[in-house]
Amino acid sequence: MSKVLVIGGGAAGMMAAIAAADKGAEVVLIESNEKLGKKIYITGKGRCNFTNASDLEDVFDAVVSNKKFLYSSFYTFDNNAVMDFFEKEGMPYKIERGNRAFPVSDHSSDVIKTLQNAMKNRGVKVLLHTEVKEILVIDYTEDETKYISRVKGVITSQGDTIECDYVIMANGGNSYQTTGSDGRGYTLANKLGLKVTDVRPALVPLVTKEDYIPFLQGLSLKNVSVEIYKGKKKLYDDFGEMLFTHFGISGPIILSASSYVSKHLPGELQAYIDLKPALTRDQIDKRLLREFDENPNKQLKTIMPHILPNKMVQVFCDVAGVDDMLVAHDITREQREKIISTMKAFPMTIVDTRGFKEAIVTQGGISVKEVNPSTMECKTIKGLYLAGEVLDLDAVTGGFNLQIAWSTGYLAGTSIDNK
Ligand SMILES: Cc1cc2nc3c(=O)[nH]c(=O)nc-3n(C[C@H](O)[C@H](O)[C@H](O)COP(=O)(O)OP(=O)(O)OC[C@H]3O[C@@H](n4cnc5c(N)ncnc54)[C@H](O)[C@@H]3O)c2cc1C
Question: Do 136 and 168 share a domain, yes or no?
Fold first, then answer.
C-alpha cells in the first residue's frame, strides 16, 4: 500500500486526502493549525459559497489565471461532481443568485464537518499543530545517464522525518495569513528549485487618491458600470454593484476588477463610473431639463437627489464643477453638459490595493509550468503533487476559487499510483 502525505488541511488538501484514500492508499494529512479548514470557515461571509452551478463553460470563464491548465481537473471533477460529493456525504445544498452553491444550513462549518467525516470514514490520519518544514527528495538513476528526482518524505516542525511514497502540497496562497496560508508553500517550492511567479493580492478592495472619495464612505451603488484605464488602454469594464469606503472602493465589481488590474499597482489607474449606464447623454439631458422645468426656483442641491443618491450630491456637484447652490432656471447648457459628463464618467484614480490582509485570493504562485495538468504531478520531481491556491491559479468570486481547490485536489489524490 502506498503512503501519501498531504500538506495542508484546507479545501484542496482535504479533498486530495479523500481522493487518495479512495484509491486505497494510506493517507496522513499534516496541518500546522490547531484545526482543519480555518479558511473555509470564513468563506462566503461564514456561509461558504462552495461552488457554482453554472455551465462548465461559464466556470472556465470565471478563471482569471491559467484557465487552460484546469481543463483536465475541471473535467475530472467538475462543479456537479462537487455538489454530488457533498450531498452524498450528507450535506444538502442550495443554489442562490448567480448560481452560487451554499450548504442549506448556511454554515461553512458544515462543509468542514463533511470533509472531516469523509476523511475519518476513509481512515485518513490527521496530524494537527504540525508544520512541514522540508520536503525530502532523492535523486536516483536507472541507467547512470539520467538522474531522476523523487520525493522520499518530509521533516516536520517536531523534527520528525516521515517517509512516504507521495507528497501532495496544498499549502494555500498568501492572503488572510491568520488562517495559515502565509506563503510557506512558496518557501518549500523554492527549496525544491520550483519556479514561483510574482504573487499579488487579488479580489481585494482598491485604494483611491482623491480626497472626495472618503466623503462617500458607506454609499453602495447598484446597476452602475465601471471602466478602468492605464493611460489610454482599457484594462477592465464591468456592470453591477460597488461600494465607497474610507480608503477607496470595494464591492462585487471592484473586487473582480482588482484581479485584472492588481498587476499594475501600486501606480496610477484612471477609473470612471457610469452612474446611469442605461441612459444616453441625450436621455439624461431630457431628464435634467424636465426636472429643471418642474422646479425652476429650486437649487441644484435639492433637485439632484431626484436623480442621484442624496449622499453623493455635494461631492458630485464639486467634481462636475457646478455650484450646487445654483437655481434651476440659471443653469446653462454648458453646466448641464458638465453634469451629464460627470454622470457618465465619475472619475477616480486608483493607486493601490489593500494588500494581502484583505485579499480573498492570491494571484500568482508556484508556476503551472512545473506541473502536469493531467495528473497534478510535478514535472521534475516524481511523487510530488500540487493542488489549490498554492499554484498560480485564481478566479473571480462566485464559488470558483473553491472549485479550483476541489478539482485540483481531487485530481492530485486520484492520480497517485497505489501499489
Ligand atoms: C474572506 C475569504 C472569503 C472567501 N470566500 C470564498 C467563497 O465563498 N467561495 C470560494 O470559492 N472561495 C472563497 N475564498 C477563497 C477560498 O477560500 C480559497 O481559494 C481556498 O480556500 C484555497 O484552498 P487551499 O486548500 O488551496 O488553501 P487554504 O485553504 O489556504 O489551505 C492551506 C492550508 O495549508 C496549511 N499549511 C500551509 N503550509 C503548511 C505547512 N508547511 N505545514 C502544514 N500546514 C501548512 C495552512 O495552515 C492552511 O490550513 C475566500 C477567501 C477568503 C480569504
Answer: yes
